[in-house]
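Severity: low
Component: inverse-folding endpoint
Summary: output formatting inconsistent between runs
Steps to reproduce: submit the following structure tokens with default settings.
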């Protein structure tokens, strides 16, 4: 599409957007600008609707979430313990209600996905099963600069097996002068380490650069090297189209409070490919909720895992967070990942185009995220060479909710502003207005 740098053009894209009605299903936060404060100091009513570009950190609340949660509160009030069986959605089976939605979002079969625990917990649980180092094969390949929690998890898993993290963890860095990894270099590294490789684990979409890794190719290369392949999809699920089953990924984990809009501390998700579904030999840390469903309440010794990913569950399902997830998945199912993907490509493409229109002859900023739309989701990571924090603060003041990442460089407040227009609730007009605010803030 030929973009135009005008408000009228942005509004036209909003008018013809097939997903435009979805914005009204969300609560859009207000920012309380000092000038908009009410005389009584309350602020709220005078607040201005934020340009909320940080769904990559905490997605917005669907208006329906309250209804879903209230349903469970009502059932609990009226039924007490009987709610386990007699609630409108019986709590005993609550983990089953989100399977369909999660399967659609991840390109999996319902038996391959389950909502449980939190992301890092699930990462540990699955690494216990799938990172099984031997004398010869013990290495983990991952991207350099992975999200801190993942780095801690990898390191502690390696130490748990009495191995040295410096030897066992191979972190791949972009080539000199480049910001993101080339797929060919990832594949070459996997091949190069194959005689010692146990696990390949990458982010789906890298949280810092916004790079969407080639899941299919990385998985194929990992398997060719005899390794297990897992992904952390925290920034991918609900953001890019995933095909975990067909891509043959062994396992994946994600959280649900980012693009999935399931609320702060939401219940996370896990994928285990069906070829591992009945493998009872995999070591696991287990609990009663992973035990064979018909036998669960006999409370007897001898664990028999449920087939599929359900066999990795430990505890009974957190119903209130589960209800919030259900509310959100309901919206995703209505919108459809294919439609969301199509809008996302346009929306972020428009943002990239407008940023490109800003006179940047002094090279004040660089977009780290790949310009190839197949290699990114909706996030663009804008690396500010100087005065980044000042620019970020100016954006905030003007009503933009974005995210500031300080890479810990000493120099001149360099850092990254991450902006993620989410196709479910952000608009082309917001992207246009953002670009105007950003341009002004640069001065
Ligand atoms: C957000 C995020 C996390 C957060 O972990 P929690 O266990 O949900 O607190 C971990 N890893 C990645 C890659 C993330 O983006």
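Observed output (run 2 of 3):
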């Amino acid at each position: 599409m030929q973009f135009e740098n005008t408000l009228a053009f942005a509004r036209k894209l909003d008018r013809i957007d097939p997903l435009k009605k979805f914005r009204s299903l969300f609560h859009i936060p207000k920012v309380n600008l000092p000038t908009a404060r009410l005389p009584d100091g309350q602020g709220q009513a005078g607040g201005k609707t934020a340009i909320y570009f940080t769904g990559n950190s905490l997605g917005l609340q669907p208006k329906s979430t309250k209804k879903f949660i209230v349903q469970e509160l009502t059932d609990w009030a009226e039924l007490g313990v009987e709610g386990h069986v007699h609630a409108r959605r019986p709590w005993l089976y609550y983990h089953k209600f989100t399977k369909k939605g999660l399967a659609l979002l991840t390109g999996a079969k319902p038996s391959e996905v389950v909502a449980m625990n939190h992301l890092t917990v699930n990462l540990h649980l699955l690494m216990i099963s799938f990172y099984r180092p031997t004398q010869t094969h013990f290495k983990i390949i991952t991207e350099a600069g992975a999200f801190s929690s993942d780095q801690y998890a990898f390191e502690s898993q390696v130490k748990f097996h009495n191995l040295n993290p410096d030897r066992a963890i191979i972190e791949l860095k972009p080539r000199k002068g480049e910001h993101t990894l080339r797929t060919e270099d990832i594949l070459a590294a996997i091949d190069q380490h194959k005689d010692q490789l146990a696990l390949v684990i990458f982010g789906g979409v890298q949280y810092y650069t916004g790079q969407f890794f080639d899941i299919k190719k990385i998985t194929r290369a990992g398997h060719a090297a005899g390794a297990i392949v897992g992904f952390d999809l925290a920034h991918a699920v609900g953001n890019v189209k995933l095909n975990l089953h067909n891509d043959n990924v062994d396992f994946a984990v994600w959280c649900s409070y980012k693009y999935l809009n399931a609320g702060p501390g939401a219940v996370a998700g896990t994928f285990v490919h069906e070829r591992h579904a009945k493998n009872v030999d995999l070591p696991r840390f287990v609990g009663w909720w992973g035990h064979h469903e018909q036998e669960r309440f006999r409370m007897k010794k001898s664990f028999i895992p449920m087939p599929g990913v359900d066999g990795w569950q430990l505890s009974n399902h957190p119903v209130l967070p589960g209800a919030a997830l259900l509310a959100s998945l309901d919206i995703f199912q209505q919108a459809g990942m294919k439609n969301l993907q199509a809008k996302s490509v346009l929306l972020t493409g428009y943002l990239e185009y407008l940023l490109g229109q800003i006179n940047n002859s002094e090279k004040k900023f660089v977009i780290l995220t790949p310009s190839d739309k197949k290699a990114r989701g909706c996030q663009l990571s804008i690396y500010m060479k100087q005065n980044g924090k000042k620019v970020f603060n100016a954006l905030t003041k003007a009503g933009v909710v974005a995210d500031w990442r300080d890479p810990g460089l000493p120099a001149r407040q360099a850092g990254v502003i991450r902006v993620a227009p989410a196709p479910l609730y952000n608009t082309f007009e917001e992207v246009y207005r953002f670009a105007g605010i950003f341009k002004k803030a640069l001065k």
